[in-house]
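User: I want to check something. If I give you two sequences, will you return the structure for each one separately, not as a complex?

Assistant: Yes, each is folded on its own. Here is the first sequence with its structure:
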Amino acid sequence: MNHIVETQRKYFNTHETKELKFRLSQLAKLEETLKSNEKLLYEAIYKDFKKSEFDTFVSELALLYSDIKDAKRNLRKWARVKRVGTNMLNFPAKSYIIPEPLGVCLVIGAWNYPYQLTLAPVIAAMAAGNTVIIKPSEIAANTSAVMAKLINENFNPNYLKVVEGGILETTELLNQKFDKIFFTGSPQVGKIVYQAAAKHLTPVTLELGGKSPAFITEDCNLKMTVKRLVWAKFLNAGQTCIAPDYVLVHKNIEDQFLELLKSEIEKEQFSIDNKNYTQIINDRNVTRLSGLIDSNKVCYGGVVNASERTIQPTILQNITFQDKVMQEEIFGPILPVISYEKLEDAINKVNEHPKPLACYVFTNNKLQKNKILKEISFGGGAINDGVMHIANSKLPFGGVGNSGMGSYHGEAGFRTFTHYKSILEKSNLIELSLKYYPHSEGKLNWIKRFMGL
């Protein structure tokens, strides 16, 4: 691991990766590598959890292609030296900010969207001019292997290198000194990554998770709400970090909401055979999710097929914040429904828990929408939709508090892997004597005037 890091550092110090022409050519090369090997990518992810080609393209590859296109189109603007104003105290001079890459970066990906969550930050790091060591999740073993094959066979390892392995390999990587670490995963592992980075004072971006609520107010468009909510929740069998984790619905519309919810799930006919559903990633998660289903509170679904690693879309009714299903992020196709009478009480309950990665508000009431947005801190979200904010590269994506730190996508991703170097360039034609000895009350008064004090 030390050898891999040091060879990348030596290559970075040749300054080749800083050239815009190089960055653009490598982004184009990554795009071509992915597009010409889509069949291999589809086969690998299907082996891991039977994700269809449609869902893989829409929720993974399309977002990566969009990120690359966005970076290629805007890179010159993002990387441009920016002139800023100079204060009177520094007259005569000019001031500017130089964006520069951080250096050797480590990107640790997640298994639930293995291509998108691993390669999206890599694209941002490449655009910023860094070298990258990529550690895909070993849980999705086939997608990890195909990413290693495609990148390690097509790119200079001194520039991009995929390292496969489990806890042992990741631990050894974290022992090395990087210039930036980007991690996507659970808060528990995020703490380990953060502690390891602290030993080297390495800056870290953590994309974590949490229990993301969906508020459904009394005056929402209920039919459209249910349609969008069902898609957002059961996409990828609920294995989505920004999926609505649970629903807070006004008591007056709870019964109608539940009936529409069941009807919409029936209509969608979620199954692997219909290519709109996936397996749970492994047996351990099937067991974990099964333990969250209280049979006494199942309103719909609840059927677990352990041998096939599938769980029927499940609705839980009459849930409280004390139930087991509310004690951890679900990360599966189980939707707890909690009713409320006063919005204030529902907001207070959410705020008693760690800040979520996402929050969704389904309403036509502007006052209630603004109240939720103002009073709940969360990473990002949507009004009258779910999950889709991730598809807008102009919206920085990231968490807050326990759900993460830092953000990426679009220019936010470029900034995440960039240091902004501030420069004051002074003229030699004139030099005011105010700062030099001997000091005097007159000089001090002039300094105060120049500073506007």
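And separately, the second sequence with its own structure:
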Amino acid sequence: MPPDPLVLDTQPLSIDDVRDVARSGRPVALGDRSREAIAAARRVIEDRTGGSAAVYGVNTGFGSLSQHRIEPSEVRAVQRNLVRSHAAGVGDALPDEVVRGMLVILAASLARGHSGVRPIVVERLLDLLAHDITPVIPSRGSVGASGDLAPLAHLALVLIGEGEARVGNVRKPGGEALAAAGLAPVELESKEGLALINGTHLITSIGALALADVQRLVAAAIGAAAMAIDACRASDTPLDARLHAVRGQDGQQTVARRLRALVAGSQILAAHREDDPRVQDPYCLRAAPQVIGATLDAIGYVETIIGRELGAVSDNPLVFPDGNDVISGANFHGMPLAIAMDLLTVALAPLAGIAERRVYWLLKASDSENPVNVYLSPQPGLHSGLMITQYTAAACCNELQTLAVPACVANIPTSAGIEDYNSMGATSAHQARAAVALARNVVAIELLVMAEALEYQRPLRSGAAVEAVHDLVRGRVRRLTEDRPPAPDIAAIADLIAGGAFVPITPDE
């Protein structure tokens, strides 16, 4: 059965809503409540369009050109020119899923009835989704204030029959893509071009999809850490609930609880509990709840910010029909999202970093209590084993460390200084998206290494949940009996993580 449509009826979207539309093609429809809200706001704009009072973006120019008044006869031309002139993006095209996310987030924002567009504008955005018409949008050009102007302008070009779009795997002019679907270009009226380009929808789309991936990544990372406890013959004493209760950090307590559940019933723990010569394990094992927990807490903050933005109206000016008001402000400013996206990248660096340290500790096999062959080689010397997987993890971590330099703390003014403090949130979002992919690969390497190392503990078994993690890996990757390229194995496990395979095994509760 096809999924039920997502009905836009002024409500906030969820991360799952964005993911389902962007990646799975869930249909989207416009609800009656939104139609009424859109119509009410549009009446206010139409009343102001020919009036004598200056209303920004309705009968004025834009940015530093806002002092220039626009005659009623020029309203359509100025909105069309706005879209054309602002489509100044460069770089590789955004992935289709990000663009589809932008389309549904933009449509939902406009459908809340504070932007002053006509219903046809929202309907045409939904038509693009329904007909698999994906605007081709260069990835660079937004400074994360005044909205994601350049990327959204490239999106809006397709609505007016210009620009480029992908239909399936074929790139074609925007007008041809619309015509092939039986759709007419939209002739923009007052305020509509500005409403289409003056929001935070690029940053929000990347952020929502990144969080959808991070939720799956964290589950895999905790599963990998749990498998490492037994693969490295570490102690479970540092998981004692009393330790974490007196610290009082929520994420730390959550991770410790989940790790305890994963290793519960382990024969390996019992086998070395009484005569373990190691007084304390290295930080990468002993401090896993503290480090991963800190990441978890930061992710919780990012989810809050993205969740708010998925219910926001972020263009300018905004219409309030109850008071017949049109109010100029700065809801388009991306700083809340920029800080959150930079924090997400910062939070992923230690998640990956401590995983790489566990890989390193296991593979070096220099500790006499580390019961594996060096590099997990079936025959050291003749076979190199998984030596170079740690190199790859180290390279990914180094790039993560570089990406973790925040973009939001730098500023370059625009629009002749009238836009004098920008968020650079689009850069923050791009960095966060790259960070998720890098961290996923590091965790995939840890799962690969620890699954192999667990074989050296046989015939002893780990806890049932850890064994389930091990079985998932073994379902895609066979045991290492002689050297082979690890790259396909890493990619296969990364695909498992991206698909959410480890979520049911390591649930939050």
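Because they were folded independently, the notes below concern the second chain alone. The chain has a mean pLDDT of 94. The chain has two domains: 6-199, 213-311+338-498.
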